[in-house]
Design brief:
Elements lengths: L15 E5 L4 E7 L7 H12 L4 E5 L2 E7 L3 H11 L11 E3 L3 H4 L10 H5 L6 E6 L14 E5 L4 H10 L3 E5 L7 E2 L1 H8 L5 E4 L3 E2 L4 E4 L4
Length: 215
């Protein structure tokens, strides 16, 4: 794999471009305050997503990759990363929503399971639900299901509010270790992303998966 030369910006809040050597492929890194993201930065990130972009972004369970659910091209690009040789069969798409109400537009939240989900969101949980027709086919699993997450993270909540629609997301690949650093993720996905949202090094936490599609 070709080396990606990265250096975390000392100018917090500034966008700067990082070149991939030797072929000159480039993407952007945007340092952000994950607890209090600046409105201008949220607007910039939302604009990337609205233009069919794919981003690396922080969540309450480490970094992920995402695009807008309204971007077929973005979903296609995310699928290409998901189906890469080193990731084949390991990851599924997840719908990242700001609330259970928004999630219910894309997944079936039946009365019998509503209290269980309500009591665990926002938080580090992925709920496997039956998908609605509004959910893009590429995002649905082979059983026409979708993983749904409502993260407990200020940056994600603010970005979803700015964007106005859910994200389609997959977990970012990580080198061996217990930390999630966007600058070590970048060499693994640099060709496939447009923007890396740098909130610093995060603990590497795995979300709990709860399948609620049974009878």
């Amino acid at each position: 794999m070709e080396e990606v030369l990265l250096e975390r910006s000392i100018r917090r809040g500034s966008i700067h471009r990082v070149s991939q050597q030797p072929v000159g492929v480039s993407f952007m890194i945007l340092p952000v305050d994950p607890e209090h993201p600046h409105e201008r930065h949220l607007q910039q990130i939302a604009e990337v997503l609205q233009r069919d972009g794919v981003i690396v972004y922080p969540t309450d369970t480490a970094y992920g990759l995402a695009c807008s659910i309204e971007s077929p091209k973005g979903i296609h690009r995310l699928e290409a990363i998901k189906n890469g040789a080193k990731r084949r069969g390991k990851k599924r798409f997840t719908l990242v929503a700001p609330s259970l109400g928004v999630a219910s537009r894309f997944a079936e939240v039946e009365d019998r399971i509503f209290p269980l989900i309500r009591d665990h969101v926002p938080g580090p949980y992925t709920f496997i639900l039956n998908a609605h027709k509004l959910t893009p086919r590429k995002v649905q699993g082979h059983r026409k299901t979708i993983g749904v997450r409502i993260p407990d993270h200020p940056f994600v909540a603010a970005l979803l509010s700015e964007l106005g629609v859910p994200l389609v997301s997959i977990s970012a690949p990580h080198p061996e270790g217990t930390e999630s650093d966007p600058l070590t993720i970048a060499p693994l996905v640099g060709r496939g992303v447009d923007l890396i949202v740098d909130a610093g090094v995060l603990p590497l936490v795995v979300s709990s998966v709860i399948d609620l599609t049974g009878p």
